[in-house]
């Protein structure tokens, strides 16, 4: 099974930024642990702060991978372009958020990605990624 995690803006700062919301672990450390825990999965990771690069990556992998775990961060609530890219591809996408977006500012309650995703997981910290990964084993 071939799965990619695609992370959007500011997620490269995990472990450094707003630890009360996002925790103390870097994504690199978490990803290494995830790879060790699921050696049977060909697991990749991509992060960009640039909307167009996220769209390019979705188009690149969106017809060949078995699953995409997508955390577009703030672009979730603003990007019609990313929404259109998710709708255009055939690989199933699970939208993930580390924090509970519904307990935060009102603008974070709307997702342009969710209508085109297989499912949405919010609020379980970095474990949200593992829960999304597990959804592809069904």
UniProtKB/TrEMBL annotation:
<dbReference type="InterPro" id="IPR001874">
    <property type="entry name" value="DHquinase_II"/>
</dbReference>
<dbReference type="InterPro" id="IPR036441">
    <property type="entry name" value="DHquinase_II_sf"/>
</dbReference>
<comment type="similarity">
    <text>Belongs to the type-II 3-dehydroquinase family.</text>
</comment>
<comment type="function">
    <text>Catalyzes a trans-dehydration via an enolate intermediate.</text>
</comment>
<dbReference type="GO" id="GO:0003855">
    <property type="term" value="F:3-dehydroquinate dehydratase activity"/>
</dbReference>
<feature type="binding site">
    <location>
        <position position="84"/>
    </location>
    <ligand>
        <name>substrate</name>
    </ligand>
</feature>
<dbReference type="GO" id="GO:0009423">
    <property type="term" value="P:chorismate biosynthetic process"/>
</dbReference>
<feature type="active site" description="Proton donor">
    <location>
        <position position="97"/>
    </location>
</feature>
<feature type="active site" description="Proton acceptor">
    <location>
        <position position="22"/>
    </location>
</feature>
<feature type="binding site">
    <location>
        <position position="108"/>
    </location>
    <ligand>
        <name>substrate</name>
    </ligand>
</feature>
<protein>
    <recommendedName>
        <fullName>3-dehydroquinate dehydratase</fullName>
        <ecNumber>4.2.1.10</ecNumber>
    </recommendedName>
</protein>
<keyword id="KW-0028">Amino-acid biosynthesis</keyword>
<dbReference type="GO" id="GO:0019631">
    <property type="term" value="P:quinate catabolic process"/>
</dbReference>
<dbReference type="GO" id="GO:0009073">
    <property type="term" value="P:aromatic amino acid family biosynthetic process"/>
</dbReference>
<dbReference type="GO" id="GO:0008652">
    <property type="term" value="P:amino acid biosynthetic process"/>
</dbReference>
<feature type="binding site">
    <location>
        <position position="77"/>
    </location>
    <ligand>
        <name>substrate</name>
    </ligand>
</feature>
<feature type="binding site">
    <location>
        <position position="71"/>
    </location>
    <ligand>
        <name>substrate</name>
    </ligand>
</feature>
<keyword id="KW-0456">Lyase</keyword>
<comment type="subunit">
    <text>Homododecamer.</text>
</comment>
<feature type="binding site">
    <location>
        <begin position="98"/>
        <end position="99"/>
    </location>
    <ligand>
        <name>substrate</name>
    </ligand>
</feature>
<keyword id="KW-0057">Aromatic amino acid biosynthesis</keyword>
<dbReference type="InterPro" id="IPR018509">
    <property type="entry name" value="DHquinase_II_CS"/>
</dbReference>
<dbReference type="Pfam" id="PF01220">
    <property type="entry name" value="DHquinase_II"/>
</dbReference>
<comment type="pathway">
    <text>Metabolic intermediate biosynthesis; chorismate biosynthesis; chorismate from D-erythrose 4-phosphate and phosphoenolpyruvate: step 3/7.</text>
</comment>
<feature type="site" description="Transition state stabilizer">
    <location>
        <position position="17"/>
    </location>
</feature>
């Amino acid at each position: 099974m071939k799965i990619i995690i695609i992370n959007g803006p500011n997620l490269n700062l995990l472990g450094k930024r707003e630890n009360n919301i996002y925790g103390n672990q870097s994504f690199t450390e978490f990803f290494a642990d995830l790879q060790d825990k699921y050696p049977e999965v060909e697991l990749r990771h991509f992060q960009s702060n640039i909307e167009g690069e996220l769209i390019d990556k979705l188009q690149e992998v969106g017809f060949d991978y078995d699953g995409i775990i997508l955390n577009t961060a703030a672009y979730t609530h603003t990007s019609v372009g990313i929404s259109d890219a998710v709708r255009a591809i055939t690989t199933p996408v699970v939208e993930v958020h580390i924090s509970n977006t519904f307990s935060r500012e009102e603008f974070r309650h709307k997702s342009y990605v969710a209508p085109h995703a297989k499912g949405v997981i919010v609020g379980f910290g970095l474990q949200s990624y593992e829960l999304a990964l597990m959804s592809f084993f069904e």
